[in-house]
Structure formats: structure tokens, C-alpha cells
Amino acid sequence: MTVAKTRQERTRDAILDAAAALFLRNGFLGASMDEIAAVADVSKQTVYAHFHSKEALFLDVVRGLTGVAGDVHQEQVTEPLDDRPIADYLQEFAELQLTIVMTPKLMQLRRLVIGEVERFPELGKALHALGPQRSINRLSRAFAHYRKLGQLEADDLEAAASFFNWLVMGGPVNDAMLLGDAAIMPAEACRGQAAESVRIFLAAFGPRAKHQA
Amino acid sequence: MTVAKTRQERTRDAILDAAAALFLRNGFLGASMDEIAAVADVSKQTVYAHFHSKEALFLDVVRGLTGVAGDVHQEQVTEPLDDRPIADYLQEFAELQLTIVMTPKLMQLRRLVIGEVERFPELGKALHALGPQRSINRLSRAFAHYRKLGQLEADDLEAAASFFNWLVMGGPVNDAMLLGDAAIMPAEACRGQAAESVRIFLAAFGPRAKHQA
DNA sequence: CAAATCAAACTGGACGGTCCAGTCTAGTTT
DNA sequence: AAACTAGACTGGACCGTCCAGTTTGATTTG
Predict the structure, then answer these.
(1) Which end of chain B has fewer CB atoms < 10 Å from its terminal CB, N or C?
(2) How high is the pLDDT of residue B2?
(3) Could you tell me the distance in Å between the CA of residue B33 and the C1' of nucleotide D2?
(4) DSSP string, A76-130
(5) What is the pLDDT of chain B when averaged over all its residues?
(6) Could you give the domains of chain A?
(7) Lowest mean pLDDT among A27-36, A109-118, A147-156, A201-210
(8) Which residues belong to any copy of the HTH tetR-type domain (chains A, B) (predicted)?
């Protein structure tokens, strides 16, 4: 917990913050190094002392944001395995997921990365791995637990996890992608969205789910 | 069905095709008018004779692609209302939706529009209205029919339609967004994805769905 | 303790080279 | 005559570099 930062670190952070704001708003090509320097209140020379090119700065910014997002998720989500019923666990998981992911900053990051997938494919892969894939993996592990307890019936756990994840996130995320931050689901609506997703999922995979031919 | 086109129309189409290819690959800022003219095999002056600015050309291109996509969808999807069971209808709907939507061109259009939502919000709204929203509306109407027949139990038809839509499309679309065209779900996998989505949905909304507290 | 010193970090602005949107002109095709 | 071509040109933005000078903060020295 070193709160003390050297001048170099403070300057670097100022540059990264300014760059993040401008890249998120204007995209890679739409943001200029001059403006980044101006917003960071730093000379352009200093920017290039810390990052040897616009591309390097962009990659650092996006990887930083992606990593932070992944970590917040990692920390917040409670460990799945205890003795409470699967419905409780899924409800909490879905609500947390919605409140953590459906924020302007994360939606802007997602739009930025998607828009630049052609130019920077590895950023897309990274955001996928630390975002949806991580949630699905975590769910899969929880599902293995609940299957042993007889509270869940599924052959392909990862497929089931993916279906649950997109049942919860599909609508909200895709609306936010196309309609902008104003369409981000309000916090009050998360509980209902989560509850209905859980109901649907457990009707198909819950212990008394009727399997049809 | 006028197959004959004037020279003007042919030139205009060549420009639109070239612009579509370059905008889809490089984005709005990444595509240059010089290159568009070159690919269209047309002088730059001619480009400006047809479209008074880069922005106007971009809007025409994206609106054209969005409209075509919406129309293809409109034509292909069979009208919902006849006497066959809901499971059949949903299966066909889901398979069609997957095969029509999960194409490189449409995924590139989606990436382009998402990346430019800040600059051109109305394009995002248009793609939303003619894409997901149109599917959901169509499903809602079918659901009203099936609810009358007692084959479906749901209070909020539009919400149910949205859940079904994202059950089918959520995973594939979001993978394609972040992982690129190589991650587009192969046609063979569509049938299985559709079938499992239908099973899950009907477990929750089908006639013998058990409603839990 | 206070003054002098010193290296690293930063400033501010100029500048070269490139690219690009959009215009203009003079000539060619259909 | 209308549509198009070829290419030069303008004005401006932008990346990345350069440089002479200043600030910062820690260390050394009187």
C-alpha cells in the first residue's frame, strides 16, 4: 500500500487518465496526442518519454482498463460453493454481474475495443477472456458443485453457463452497445432482470426440470 | 424490377460498394476518400458529384447496409401464425435468425456502428430498430398468438421475446464482436444452438411450465 | 541547518514529413 | 450536353522529433 508516488508515476498516471478519457470518447484515430498532452497538463515530449508511440499508449490504456475491470469482477463475486440453494447463488451472481458490468466506463471500453477489433485483435481476445469468458468459467465451476448436489441437471456445464450468462446480460449489453450510455439499465431494474433470468434458467436446468425428447 | 441501370446509377453503386468495403474494414476515420475513389475505379471528383461529403457518403453506406439487412430478415422469416406447435416455429425462427445474422458482413457492420455510436448515435438507433428490436417485435406478435392457443404462458410478451432472442443470439453475437469473423458460429452448429434455446425457453414459458414462487 | 549542487524530469514551442478532405481546371467519353 | 477522368492544389491536422531552457527533489557541502 504505497500511497506515496514519485513524480514520474504521478505524471504517468495523468497521461494514462487523459488518454483513457479521450480514447474512450473519440476512438484510436479520433484522439490526438496533442490533445492527450493538453488534457494531462503535460508537454508532448513528456508523453513520448513515457510511451514511445500512440499505439503503445493505446495498448497500455486499454489493457489497463481491461485488467481493472477483470479484477473488480474477480474480487466482488462471492465464491460459489456453500450450502445455500442454487437459486440464491444465481440471483446474487446475476445482480452483481449486472451492476458491475453495466457502467458507462465499461460499456465505452467495450465499444472502443469492438470498433478496433480489426486493428487490434488481441484487445478483443483479452476483453473476451477477462470479461464474459471469466464469468462463464466461474459459473461452470459453481455448476459442477450444484450438479453433485442434485440441484442442477446438465450435460454440458459450460454451455449451460453461457446460456445463463447471456440470459442475464444479452439484452442489457446489446442495448447499451447500440443505444449509448443513456440506455444503460438502471440499478433498480437489475433485480427483476436477474430474478426472471434465474426463473427461466432453473425451469430448464433445475432439479425438477422436465427433459423433453 | 428494372435491371437496366443508367450510367449514373452504375457509378453510384460502384462508389457505394467500394465505400462499404473500406468503411467496414477501416472505420470512418480509417477510410480515405482517395482510396474509395481508387477502389471504385472512379475519379475523386465523381465521388463528390454523387456525395457532397465523406460524412454523407458514410451515412448513405451504413443506412443502406442496415436497411438491406433488415429487409432480408423481413422477407425470410416465415409468418408465425398457423397451427403448427410453438416448438417448431421457434426452432425455425432461431435457425433462420442465426444463419441470417451471423455473417461476416453483418458482424462487421455491427462492429462499425458500435464503434461510431459516439459520433453517429442515430446509426446505432437505426441498427437497433431494424435488427434486434424488429426480431423481438415479430416474436412478440407470434407469442400473442400462441398464448391464445394456450401453448405459452407469459405476462410480458415483449420481455419473453427478448429473453428468447438473446438466449439464441447472445453468445454467438458477442463472441463474434470481440473475437472477429473467425469466431462466427459455423452453420452446422446453428441447429443445436437453436434447439437448446428452444428447450430452455419452453421449459420456462411452455404450456406445462411450473411457475415457481 | 542552510546553501550549493546535480541529475532526472519536464516545458514550450517549432518543425519535418505525411496524410487527407475537399476544390479546381482542363480534357475525354458516351 | 451530361457525365466522367486525371491530377494538381489548398489548407489544415497530426505523429513524432528536436532543442534550449526550467523545475523538482534529493544529496552534498560549508
Answers:
(1) N
(2) 47
(3) 24
(4) HSPP--SSS-HHHHHHHHHHHHHHHH-SHHHHHHHHHHHHTTTT-HHHHHHHHHH
(5) 92
(6) 1-52 (1.10.10.60), 61-205 (1.10.357.10)
(7) A201-210
(8) 9-69
**Whole-angstrom Cα distance, residue A173 to residue B206?**
26
Residue B1 has pLDDT above 50, yes or no: no
Are the beta carbons of B166 and A167 separated by less than 8 Å?
yes
Q: How far is the CA of B38 from the C1' of C23 (A)?
A: 18
Q: Where are the beta strands (DSSP E) in chain A?
A: none
* Amino acid at residue number A112: L
What does the alpha-carbon distance between residue B210 and residue B173 come to, in Å, rounded to a whole number? 30
Question: How many Å apart are CA B176 and CA B167, to the nearest integer?
Answer: 15
Give the integer Cα–Cα distance in Å for A133 and A127: 9
Residue A189 sits at the chain B interface (C-beta within 8 Å): no
Segment A150-184, tens digit of pLDDT: 999 999 999 999 999 999 999 999 999 999 999 99
Q: Which contacts of B67-73 are long-range, i.e. CB under 8 A and separated by 24 or more positions?
A: B67/B130, B69/B106, B69/B109, B69/B130, B69/B131, B70/B130, B70/B131, B70/B134, B72/B100, B73/B97, B73/B100, B73/B101, B73/B130, B73/B131, B73/B134, B73/B135
Task: With CA atoms as reference, report the closest residue to A123 among A40, A33, A63.
Answer: A63
Contact predicate A169/A93, CB 8 Å = no
Cell of B93: 425462427
* Cβ within 8 Å of residue B4, ≥6 positions away: none
Q: Which one of A114, A125, A203 has the shortest CB-CB distance to B115?
A: A114
